[in-house]
Specification:
Layout lengths: L8 H9 L5 H19 L2 E4 L1 H16 L11 E5 L26 H8 L3 E6 L35 H8 L5 E6 L5 H7 L2 E4 L19 E6 L2 H11 L29 E3 L11 H16 L3 E3 L7 H24 L11 H5 L6 H21 L5 E5 L22 H5 L3 E9 L5 E8 L4 H13 L13
Parallel strand pairs: 2-3, 2-4, 7-8, 7-9
Antiparallel strand pairs: 1-3, 4-6, 5-6, 5-10, 9-11, 10-11
Length: about 475
């Protein structure tokens, strides 16, 4: 790895702290890579080059003067174009909002600034963040960097964030996850994603899709970086009621404790159908690897199928999206993505009774699921049923979120980590699902797996 851009944040931060690397040098490397790779990959909506350089110079001076604000001072980050920064355009993935200027700054951006990180730019998203494939008809679909011949799906909705991190145009990025939008891009781009529990990270200033289900989260190279970013982003915020009463965690405390003695549940037999053979084989090898590291692998009987839970998740998402976006999507003159418009409009057919019943079903299933996994530390699944498909082969009436939506529905947390490659060189991914607010445990399992493998160190052909 000859470029400093190929190193994870925890390494970069140590180099800056040791005065062996300057924030200016680091920023110039990422901006140069972005200038070279962005025309082909289209990860960014906008690149904040001028301001990023000024901020890097200021960080360098402060650090040399002994005034570093923390261990992440001078580290660049990419931010999904669903996150508002006062005075800047926040399009939310739609051409209808090309000139929409954010009225305030998201809490998570304020936290990033307080930690000394520097905004590289805004990354592409599926329109309104409503879709798992990562496509966008009007603003552009980022290209998955693992295939230099075919335009493959980047995963959505945090498509640009996933591509930017995988291609080493950013050391890490912010995504959001309502049904898999952090984990699917992580899976298909060969990187790491953390779906947080609702209330762990404030959603104030994040354009909503489904307030019941929306969760911001880190998209990173590896688990240790995800833990570092979680520590920065978490915290109570009076402008987001879900955060009130949620205690902060230190994800680093148990990160390196390994999996010996943990009880990890394997995928139920009746959920193994329909999974790509190579994805399933990689999954089985991952389970075996964790067993060899000392985990106890157990079977579990779940109260419902993942697809059924995901369907109810979809009804909640659609109803809440339509409530927020009806005026826009019902105006046929608006330049909306014709794959996304019907998803939002479907919410018009969901009655208030059906919506409330779906919310009640969610509470019942949360209780039933918690009973079913009593005594189990984590449930292991593939993150997706198949590797990234060619964009030309996508059926927009389907979803790649079979193994992810149910996690949002039950308000759990989950980490997605690379766990292999297909014969054609496409990444596969392992999902580690834990109880609500147990992010440190999901990260612990993911870390134990990653230190025993090098899948997360592989570099996509289009990033070399």
């Amino acid at each position: 790895m000859t470029s400093i851009a190929f190193h994870p944040v925890h390494t970069l931060a140590a180099e800056i702290a040791g005065r062996r690397l300057s924030p200016v040098e680091l920023m110039e490397e990422y901006l140069a890579r972005t200038e070279r790779l962005e025309p082909g990959l289209r990860a960014f909506v906008s690149v904040n080059a001028a301001n990023a350089r000024l901020a890097a110079e200021a960080a360098d001076r402060a650090i040399r003067a002994g005034h570093a604000v923390g261990p992440l001072h001078g580290i660049p980050i990419a931010i999904k174009d669903l996150v508002e920064i006062e005075g800047e355009v926040a399009m939310g993935g739609t051409a209808a909002w090309r000139n929409r200027v954010a009225p305030h700054t998201a809490t998570l951006v304020r936290k990033l600034r307080a930690a000394g990180t520097i905004n590289l730019g805004k990354t592409h998203t599926v329109e309104f963040a409503y879709g798992g494939w990562g496509t966008n008809q009007h603003l552009g679909t980022p290209r998955n960097p693992w295939d230099d011949r075919l335009h493959r799906a980047p995963g959505g909705s945090s498509s640009g964030s996933g591509v930017a991190v995988a291609a080493r145009m950013a050391p890490w990025a912010i995504g959001t996850d309502t049904g898999g939008s952090v984990r699917i891009p992580a899976a298909w781009n060969g990187i790491t994603g953390l779906k947080t529990t609702i209330g762990r990270i404030s959603t104030f200033g994040v354009l909503p899709l489904s307030p019941t289900l929306d969760t911001p989260g880190p998209i990173t190279r590896d688990i240790e970086d995800a833990a570092l970013l979680l520590a920065v982003l978490q915290g109570e915020d009076r402008r987001d009621r879900h955060t009130l009463g949620v205690r902060d965690v230190d994800p680093m405390v148990e990160l390196r404790r390994g999996v010996k003695g943990l009880r990890l549940a394997r995928l139920p037999t009746d959920e193994r159908g329909g999974i790509d053979a190579e994805v399933l084989a990689a999954y089985d090898r991952s389970v075996e690897a964790l067993a060899n590291l000392g985990a106890e692998i157990v079977d579990v009987a779940l109260p419902a199928r993942f697809a059924d839970l995901g369907a109810v998740n979809g009804r909640i998402m659609s109803a809440e999206a339509y409530a927020a976006l009806a005026e826009l999507v019902d105006d046929n003159a608006q330049p909306l993505d014709q794959d996304v418009r019907p998803r939002v409009r479907a919410g018009a057919a969901i009655s208030s009774r059906d919506y409330l019943l779906a919310l009640a079903e969610r509470e019942r299933m949360k209780a039933s699921f918690n009973t079913a996994i009593d005594g189990i530390d984590a449930l292991l699944t593939p993150t997706t049923v198949a590797p990234a498909p060619p964009v030309s082969a996508i059926d927009q009436n389907t979803t790649p979120a079979i193994f992810t939506r149910w996690v949002n529905f039950l308000d759990l947390c989950a980490a997605a980590v690379p766990n292999g490659f297909t014969a054609g060189g496409l990444p596969t991914s392992l999902q580690i699902v834990c109880r609500a607010y147990a992010e440190p445990l999901a990260l612990r399992v993911g870390y134990a797996y990653q230190v025993a493998h090098d899948w997360h160190l592989r570099i996509p052909p289009m990033a070399a």
